[in-house]
Every structure is written in structure tokens, then in C-alpha cells.
Write a structure and sequence with these properties.
Strand order of the largest sheet: 3-4-2-1-14-13
Strand content: 15-25%
Structural class: alpha+beta
Number of strands: 16
Radius of gyration: 25 Å
CATH superfamily of the largest domain: Endonuclease/exonuclease/phosphatase
Number of domains: 2
Shape: globular
CATH topology of the largest domain: Deoxyribonuclease I, Chain A
Distance between the termini: 103 Å
């Protein structure tokens, strides 16, 4: 008895079925990959050098599969659009850091003050764009970092200016210096200023204000990157030292701020994205103006990436205590630095402030609770 072999089924319907199945796997795999990528950055960033590269890298690259997968899913398997939609939401929101100004609809308090901060990277000597920005922004308080050289700014008439090294605070209201600190940074031969705090005398009373400039991991990142191999793990020693130094510096600076009376507003170049564990440990007690009142990704620093990759990182911040609520926050115009200015309107909360001697509790890196005695405000 003869047996005839069955022909293989290579019909277009079978090939299309396999393609739909592969497309479904690709869509769900992309969703899980984005979630794992976000969790890796969120929990391991600024703890291990590999995740720190992700934290300070071009996160928009995670969106690249969408232009390919979405059209294919629309044609061959529309059910796969749902995991792709979920992946896009995670990639654009938690991973890439897109912000929606929901607090703009809730900020009903008054009065309102406008604050401007920028790391000038020494672009503060006869800089017409900086002068125009200060004049046209109508800011009440201006904080500049990176004033390493001579400073010559066309301040409006009757403005008050405080300067300590590279840190500068200027305001239309009187200023009284409270403290200024320096810190030895990894890779630097001399100490650098990292905190300047003051009291701003508003018509309604005193406002405690501080500007900071914390250590950057960019030297260690630059050492890790290689033009030929991309990354050289054998060069991770510097970035590991920088990570440890940045944890220590944030702890020192927030301890000093607590000793000064816990300021109402802290601004400056923290060199920390809001997803960083360092930021969440030491700085999340304040409300981040762009996180709650800004629109978009808010990249304030635009480093020169490798292979011509252009991207922004949101490492400059305007932070406010419970006494002041962010009402609006936006990026200012370019002044020639690789940092963009950040501007915010903040309104006085209508609630009754804590009396002198009130207590605020903050967690440190070790998980211990630090009790801060608050000084009386207006």
C-alpha cells in the first residue's frame, strides 16, 4: 500500500496567521520591556552606573519601535494596538517624564511671585539675551548658578543682589544672607559652592529662599562612553565615586537647609532627574513646580550626545514647601548656555502656616527619620 506525503501548507492564510501571532508577541513584549526598563531606571538609577546611564540618557529612544509596530498592528492585528497604547503611555509618561499642568487648575492662593533659575555656565558677562530674559520675564526673584567668571548683568533699578562664588540671588525685594556652603567634588581640585540661602523680605513678610548647584555625574559618564565600543565598563570607577559623592552631598545640603529653618523655595541645578533615588530620598519633600504645573518633558539641560543624538534632561528644578503652591512653570529662552532657564509662578497657600517650633519629618538615605524644627514664617 502506498502512502502519499501530505503537502506542506504554505498558503497565504497560514503565513498571515503566523505573522499576526508574531506581531502580538512583539506588541506584548514591547510593553513588558518598557515597564522593565522604567523599573530598572527608577529603582537602580543612581545606585549602579549602568542604570545611571539610562537615567541621564536619551529616553526618547524607547519610543522608536512604535512607528513600526503601530502601522503593522493597524493593518494586520488591531487587538495588538491595546498593548502598544499602554506601552506608549508608560514610555511617554513615567519613563520619558511627560508632565501635565494639573496644579494650574488648583492654585487659587495669593499673592503670586515669579521665580527664575538658570545655570549660566559663565554666560553672565554682558549677555544681552540674559538681560532681556530677566527684563521680559518680569521675575521677582532670580537665581543663577555657574557664575564662575565676572558677572555683569543689567539688573532692573533698585534690585538687590547676593553672590557667593558661582551662586547668585537677585530680587526686587530686600535680601538677607543666611548661609553659604562649599563642597569638594569628585574630579575637582578645589571646593565648589553648592548652597546659598537667604531671607527675602516680601510686602507680606519673610520668605526663606535658597539656590543650589550639586555635583554632576557627567565626568564619569563621559569616561564610560567610547567612540568605538559604545561603553567601556572597565572605566566605571569614576562614575561610581560620583554616585556615592552625590548621595553624600544631597544629605549634607538638606541637613544645612534644615539647620537654616527649612526654606519655602529651593531652586537651582540639582543635577538630579525627579526619577533619581537621590532626588526621591532628599528632595521630594518639596513640590516640584514643573512636575505639577509644567507641560511637556521640560528638558533643562541639552548635552552633546554621542553619535549626534540630541536630547534634554530635566535636572534644574524649582521646589516649594507646603506654604507655596506652583501655579505655572515653563522653560525660558536660550541664553547661550547648555541649560535652559526655568520660570515658575507660585502662589501663597491660603492655609494657616505652622507656628514656630512645628515639626517636619524627612527620611535620609539610611531610612532613618530626621526631625526638622520649622522657624516662624509670615
Amino acid at each position: 500500500m502506498s502512502m502519499n506525503p501530505q503537502p506542506l501548507n504554505n498558503s497565504p492564510e497560514t503565513s498571515c496567521s503566523w505573522f499576526r501571532c508574531a506581531l502580538a508577541w512583539a506588541a506584548w513584549g514591547y510593553l513588558f520591556s518598557v515597564i522593565l526598563f522604567w523599573a530598572f531606571m527608577f529603582w537602580v538609577g543612581d545606585r549602579w552606573w549602568g542604570a545611571t546611564l539610562v537615567l541621564f540618557g536619551p529616553r526618547w529612544l524607547c519610543l522608536l519601535p512604535l512607528p513600526l509596530l503601530v502601522p503593522l498592528a493597524s493593518i494586520f492585528r488591531r487587538r495588538s494596538l491595546w498593548p502598544l497604547l499602554a506601552a506608549a503611555i508608560v514610555a511617554i509618561g513615567p519613563l520619558a517624564g511627560f508632565c501635565i499642568p494639573w496644579a494650574s487648575f488648583l492654585a487659587l492662593g495669593s499673592p503670586t511671585i515669579r521665580v527664575l533659575t538658570c545655570n549660566t555656565k559663565s554666560h553672565c558677562l554682558d549677555n544681552e539675551r540674559l538681560d532681556a530674559l530677566i527684563r521680559e520675564s518680569n521675575a521677582d526673584i532670580v537665581a543663577l548658578q555657574g557664575c564662575w567668571k565676572d558677572v555683569h548683568v543689567q539688573w532692573p533699578d533698585a534690585w538687590h543682589v547676593l553672590r557667593h562664588g558661582e551662586l547668585l540671588i537677585a530680587s526686587r525685594f530686600p535680601l538677607q544672607e543666611v548661609s553659604a556652603t562649599v563642597h569638594f567634588r569628585t574630579g575637582h581640585s578645589r571646593p565648589r559652592e553648592n548652597l546659598l540661602s537667604c531671607i527675602v523680605t516680601l510686602p507680606e513678610g519673610e520668605l526663606r529662599f535658597a539656590t543650589v548647584h550639586l555635583q554632576s555625574p557627567h565626568f564619569g559618564i563621559a569616561r564610560l562612553l567610547d567612540r568605538h565600543t559604545g561603553i567601556r565598563p572597565s572605566r566605571s570607577d569614576l562614575i561610581t565615586k560620583e554616585i556615592n559623592a552625590r548621595w553624600h552631598e544631597s544629605e549634607e545640603v538638606t541637613s544645612q537647609l534644615a539647620a537654616d529653618g527649612w526654606p519655602d523655595i529651593v531652586v537651582g541645578d540639582l543635577n538630579l532627574p525627579v526619577e533619581s533615588p537621590i532626588y526621591r530620598t532628599y528632595w521630594s519633600s518639596w513640590s516640584d513646580a514643573f512636575s505639577v504645573a509644567g507641560w511637556g518633558f521640560g528638558g533643562t539641560e541639552w548635552p552633546q550626545g554621542t553619535a549626534g543624538i540630541h536630547f534634554g534632561i530635566r535636572i534644574d528644578h524649582i521646589l516649594s514647601s507646603f506654604r507655596w503652591r506652583p501655579k505655572r512653570c515653563w522653560l525660558g529662552s536660550d541664553i547661550g548656555s547648555d541649560h535652559l532657564p526655568l520660570v515658575a509662578d507660585l502662589c501663597r497657600e491660603p492655609c494657616k502656616p505652622l507656628a514656630e517650633g512645628g515639626v517636619l519629618k524627612v527620611n535620609n538615605r539610611s531610612g532613618n527619620t530626621v526631625t526638622v524644627q520649622l522657624k516662624k514664617d509670615f
